[in-house]
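For reproducibility, we list the full input for the flavin-adenine dinucleotide complex.
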Amino acid sequence: MGVQLRMQPWRKDPGSLGQASLWLRQALDAEPSGAPTPLQGSTRADVCIVGGGFTGLWTALRLRELSPALEITVVEAGLCGWGASGRNSGAVGHWWGRLPTLLRLLGREDALRVLDASVKVLEDIRSFIGMHGIECQLREETSVWSTTYPNQLGAWMPMFKAAEAAGVTPPHRLLTPEEMRELFGAAPYYSGVAEDGAMRVQPALLVRGLRRVAAAWGIRIHETSPVTLIASEPHVVRVETRHGCVRADQVLLAANAWMAHLKPFKPYIAVTSSDMVVTAPVPRLLDRPELRRRPGGVNSRTLLNYSGTTPDGRVYMGRGGGSIAWDNRIGAQFDADPRMCAQVEQDLRYLYPELREVPVASAWSGPIDRSTTLLPWFGALAEDARVHYAIGYSGHGMGATALGGRVLASQILQRTDEWTELAMLFMRARSGWFPPEPIRYLAAHVIRNATVRRDEALRMGQAPSRLDARLAALALTSLPTRGVARP
Ligand SMILES: Cc1cc2nc3c(=O)[nH]c(=O)nc-3n(C[C@H](O)[C@H](O)[C@H](O)COP(=O)(O)OP(=O)(O)OC[C@H]3O[C@@H](n4cnc5c(N)ncnc54)[C@H](O)[C@@H]3O)c2cc1C
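The corresponding predicted structure, in tokenized form, follows.
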């Protein structure tokens, strides 16, 4: 037994910022300049972490707290924050929206345990940010989960039903039509539920802040060092890069969607893009009465829009379910896809009609590791239990990666505690699989196109065709588990 995991080829110049998000550029501009340290030659570590996003850095930090003498090395292909962690929309959320799935897969008691952990970790993040003085524009805002088509059912309804059945109360309150008008004016928002005190950050500032703390704590960080191979040896696991190699007792795979092509993950993860646009700063416009109270949030589309404003007066809009990756291979369109970003810009003009004349200043894309259940898994590979992993955040990783950091640190240190118990619950919640290529790619396109047509019909206030409605209903499903080997 053992593993030979070949990572996807990385671009020739791993140090170039290329299509980096505006967030990452802002974060790097705020740092003292300094060249990254690529991995050169052969080195040894107790734990080697592949990937310097939130998963990798939170785990490194929690490991250091639990075991100060541990030699920890992080190997990152680009710069820490180059991945989804430095590109996302910064909504740090819990799993209340996943309650129906959790109840179905785990039963009431364990579902509520996972939900509770997803809520408590938000305080964990807040306190780490405060304790280490990480300037990441942390703010608490009202966030609204809305419908943006006439006669559309709110996607929050299953959550409310599940909560009622479980005897718990979600943190959302239903908005009256008057409140909707007050918040959204004449923009096409039809109904919604509000959550006060929702947490937001500038994500690249946070991930670079974690990097700063990790480096200060003696965690070795090698950036611009794409890992090419992870291979089992009798006494260590070998992590190879273009110009170096780390021999480690244990390895954490924290490369998110970039490792979804690997055999242990491919049946359970489908990679799609999430695409974003950000306007130029328009603080004076946002201060006008019709926009001053406009909250950020998400809508009820399957290809859901998320939006918000920044402290410097920009508006951002994103949309999930963009490009679909063939065989989970990530191409250049997962850094910036002009076609998808142009569609998101149309969404921006539709949902913020007041910004018709405001130019889009920046646009980018990022990969989503969408799991069969929309929940992540934290585990170790059956072929080599020294190789740990986290995958499947499904576009909700801001809080979950911090939870993952605690779970993975305990797992790597072979502790038995509340975090390893949680890991077992996540494992138990795994179910379903996606078909192999080419069926997966073709089916995903058929379903996605039907979803777009259905949404367009709804937007026009028309009834979608029955076929499109049926196909679109398959968008969030997977095949039932039956005799499929698990990693
Ligand atoms: C556009 C967008 C918007 C999103 N919005 C939100 C949101 O508002 N709220 C939320 O909760 N979640 C959101 N997400 C999801 C969230 O960003 C992710 O779930 C989270 O950042 C995952 O963190 P990670 O560390 O696992 O992955 P990443 O941050 O992607 O880190 C993986 C790292 O691995 C590196 N890597 C890849 N291959 C190699 C290799 N061969 N060798 C070494 N390193 C490698 C990458 O460069 C990357 O830095 C969004 C995602 C996107 C793309």
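The chain has three domains: 4-88+204-268+373-428, 139-195+269-371, 439-472. The first helix runs from residue 22 to 29. Both points were considered when choosing residues for closer inspection.
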